[in-house]
Amino acid sequence: MNRISADPSSYGVDGARPDVVVFHGSHSPSVGINFWPARLQCPVTRTPVVDAVFEGVGVLWSWTFVHLPWPGAVSPARDGAAGYGVGYVDLDAGPRMAAVLVGDQGDWACGARVRAEPLVFRREADGDVWIPAFREVGS
Amino acid sequence: MTVDSDVLVAGVAMTRFGGPQRPLHHRIFDAGRSVLADAGLDYSDVDSVFLGAVLAPPMFGINAVKDLGLTGVPIINVQNASATGAACFYLAAQAVRSGRAQVAMALGFEDPAAHGWGASFNELRNDVPIMDAIAVPAAVFSMWAVRRMHERGTSIETLAAIAAKNLNNARLNPFAERQRPNPVTVDDVLSARMLAFPHTTQMAAPQGAGAAAAIVVSAEFARTMATRPRVKISASQSHTERYTEGQVLAFPIIGPPEMVKRAADAAYEEAGIGPQDLGLASFHDAFAIEELLYYEEVGLCAPGDADRLVHDGVTQLGGRIPVSTDGGFIGRGHPGGPTGLAQIWELTNQLRGTAGSRQLDSPRHGLAHTPGAGSVCYTHILSAH
Q1: Phi/psi at A64 (nearest 5 deg)?
Q2: Chain A residues near residue B129 by CB distance under 8 angstroms
Q3: What ipTM does this complex have?
Q4: Do B137 and B179 meet the contact criterion of CB atoms below 8 Å apart?
Q5: pTM value?
Q6: Which residues of A, range 3-22, sit inside 8 Å of B by Cβ?
Q7: Which residues of A touch B147 (CB under 8 A)?
Q8: Cis peptide before A118 (omega within 30 of 0)
Q9: N or C, which end of chain B is more exposed by having fewer CB within 10 Å?
Q10: What is the pLDDT of residues B347-367, one digit of tens each?
């Protein structure tokens, strides 16, 4: 089944490695900082940025488990229980982002290595729609 | 901005947050009428109005205040997330300080159940960037709590102690949303339903409807008033983010600590005082972790010492620097638009000695700190005049 990023301008998969999630952001040559989501110009120096792609690997800065249903009209199945994990991930490329975590409360630790994988949350006629979700991969 | 001529708080008012269901425009009218009565003024005296709401439909407020009078007064609508009411107050102070107004009204209002997040989340469609949607405030603030626990060894009991303090303060505030019949214990807070680890529902702010207002006047106008205002705006600061390592640019919610510290430092400098001079403080304690972090960022203690402040009772009523004396966001409530003005309401009442059963012993200075969506931060210092 074809897989469709829910927000292709912000994340997708590596063309050569379809299981590798990548994030589409910006790089500021003037200060050497990477940003995600993409910026229209460098917010530090107000100079031009270039498009950049960051692999979805990094370190878990923090985590929580939200004991509420996923907001919105559609949610990934989670064995029928309400709730989902959320983490702040520092990508190896630099940007910090909030993202879904795979697992349950107690599965995660600050400082753990994590990797993004596609989490399908809706099936459509032309493919499965996914968002990135991070899973611990060991230190 | 620096306040280089005296700007005084002539009146404050709020409706009870939450409580029995009432039409929002009735709450707006009540807050407007009550703040005018508190100041001893008529709506025709007001020459600038700043209305604030986060979620209400466009022009809702301006339609509601028509019941106060059709006087031709300039009215500006403001939205700055949690800091909306604080932004209205900032603009009112700025209008008076600049000389464009002699009497300015700031009025915030909200009915989250009618215009709120639940409705907007349920309308999420396929093309919404859903990664933003999962980072709800409960998730973001709880991640800061887990990080604090990891770095400093903060316990969930410490967070519960902050919440219990604020819920007990709210018992003394007839305008608070949460008014518990019995004293609240740490165990009560811990045994509540988990919202997002480590925060239980009792460590998080309720979001009932409400309205709050303040009237600020120039020193020149104050001399014409029958009852002279007794509270002065010593500092009024508005700041936004600068880039710091670890900055979150998508749905930031909490914002970088650097912004909070910079806004507080600028306010102290403007007021010519330091944190040791404060008699009380009011923070954005939408979740208990926030109050703990802000103790340090606003300078009430050294980095890493906030837990000790809680355990030593320093921030309780009767402590060296009471915080969230009206119940804070956790106890008084956090509708959105009026919240920042409820903070001003409490500071003003404490500084002029009208805080009722929770009245402190003659505080001289109070600080209200109000960030909005992690992207703006207002800090006001009010002083007895």
Answers
A1: -155, 170
A2: 6-7, 10
A3: 0.93
A4: no
A5: 0.94
A6: 6-7, 10-11
A7: 61-62, 88, 110
A8: no
A9: N
A10: 999 999 999 999 999 999 999
